[in-house]
Specification:
With 107 residues, this protein is mainly alpha-helical. It has helices spanning 13-53, 55-58, 68-106, and strands at residues 62-63, 66-67. Strands 1-2 form a two-stranded antiparallel ribbon.
Length: 107
């Protein structure tokens, strides 16, 4: 007497559709995350390169007796790096919440 347990399980069409939606939502989420990281890394590179590249041109300007390039490298770049970290955390939180909302709607 044959049993039904030997028959392969065929996934329901609804399960396949839901799986495709989850994969598509995940792909959109990581595309946005990679784009954000690329922009922030470009800003980081511009800040790091700019303070060094323009240091000689800005050295003749002084602030409280110190060259402007010193302030840009010591304080300006550090504040820009902190702003980059803050922007990443803020935007990724929003992207993650959007992704979680999309997954909740599909469930």
């Amino acid at each position: 007497m044959p049993t039904d347990s030997a028959a392969p399980a065929v996934p329901a069409p609804d399960a396949d559709l839901q799986r495709e939606r989850i994969v598509a939502a995940r792909q959109r989420h990581w595309e946005r995350a990679r784009r954000l990281v690329a922009w922030l890394l470009a800003l980081w590179l511009a800040t790091s390169f700019g303070t060094v590249f323009f240091a000689r041109d800005l050295a003749h300007l002084s602030v409280f007796g110190w060259p402007l390039s010193f302030y840009l490298a010591a304080q300006g770049a550090s504040l820009t790096y902190l702003a980059i970290i803050g922007a990443y955390a803020w935007r990724m939180r929003a992207l993650d919440r959007d992704f979680a909302r999309q997954l909740g709607e599909q469930a």
